[in-house]
């Protein structure tokens, strides 16, 4: 026991070894290797990484994977010519053509599915026809800005775009600058969404204000309502294609709980 008590503890031995290593002459330091020594000089990134090229490659891979998944599930199976349409080279070429049609535009996988983007970039002639239809209906719109925020418009056919534009302009006929409203809130280029917003504003103001005037003066009211999850009145489509809108006599039709919310939260009668 006496000998064990006078032996250095394991912790003391560890400290002694570390002290001895610390007092030994250190070897000549080796030069640090640059882990990112190569990269695109045009990327503008301090690390030399071309993030745009990486992003483009990732998008192409996502689109290609979605196309392969569809090909595996297709019944009947796709022909070799159909499969070749969606290979990586064709997708890359299609993305370049899309960017030429819309300078400054970039694909966002979160706004449309990878498969929808693949169909668009492999049919840029169809996209060009849609752009012509949109420009003919809305000559003053910044299409790049609108489509960047709401690319779902590109999934419609040119004839449908023209029909929608006619309905939108009919709904906004009292506006001084209808295209400015659409530019501020791109979703309003869809007639049913626009109609839903108009009748909802009518409900908010109890028919005491012109909803088109409200939109022109404050188009951001739509975004603010979405941020606080304020519901918009629905628009129903009948079998014959006609629309069925909720009655605008909201004050007479509302239930007791709606009346309570209007009076307590919105300070309305």
TrEMBL record:
Identify the stretch(es) annotated as Disordered.
1-53
Q: Where is the composition biased (Low complexity)?
A: 36-48
Q: Spell out the Polar residues composition-biased ranges.
A: 1-24
Put simply, this protein is called Uncharacterized protein
Organism of provenance: Dunaliella tertiolecta (Green alga)
């Amino acid at each position: 026991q006496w000998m064990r008590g006078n032996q250095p503890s394991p912790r003391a031995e560890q400290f002694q070894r570390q002290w001895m290593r610390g007092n030994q002459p250190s070897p000549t330091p080796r030069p640090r290797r640059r882990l990112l020594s190569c990269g695109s000089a045009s990327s503008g990134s301090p690390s030399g990484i071309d993030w745009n090229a990486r992003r483009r490659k990732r998008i192409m891979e996502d689109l290609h994977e979605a196309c392969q998944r569809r090909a595996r599930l297709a019944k009947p199976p796709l022909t070799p010519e159909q499969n070749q349409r969606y290979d990586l080279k064709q997708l890359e070429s299609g993305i370049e053509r899309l960017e030429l049609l819309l300078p400054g535009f970039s694909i966002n996988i979160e706004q449309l599915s990878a498969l929808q983007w693949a169909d668009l970039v492999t049919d840029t002639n169809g996209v060009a026809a849609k752009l012509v239809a949109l420009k003919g209906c809305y000559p003053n719109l910044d299409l790049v800005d609108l489509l960047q925020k709401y690319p779902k418009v590109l999934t419609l056919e040119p004839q449908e775009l023209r029909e929608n534009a006619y309905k939108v302009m009919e709904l906004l006929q009292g506006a001084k600058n209808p295209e400015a409203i659409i530019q501020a809130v791109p979703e309003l280029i869809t007639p049913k969404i626009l109609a839903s917003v108009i009748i909802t504003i009518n409900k908010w103001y109890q028919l005491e204000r012109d909803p088109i005037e409200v939109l022109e003066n404050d188009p951001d009211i739509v975004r603010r309502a979405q941020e606080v999850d304020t519901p918009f009145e629905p628009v129903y489509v009948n079998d014959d294609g006609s629309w069925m809108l909720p009655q605008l006599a909201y004050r007479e039709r509302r239930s007791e709980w709606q009346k309570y919310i209007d009076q307590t939260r919105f300070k309305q009668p």
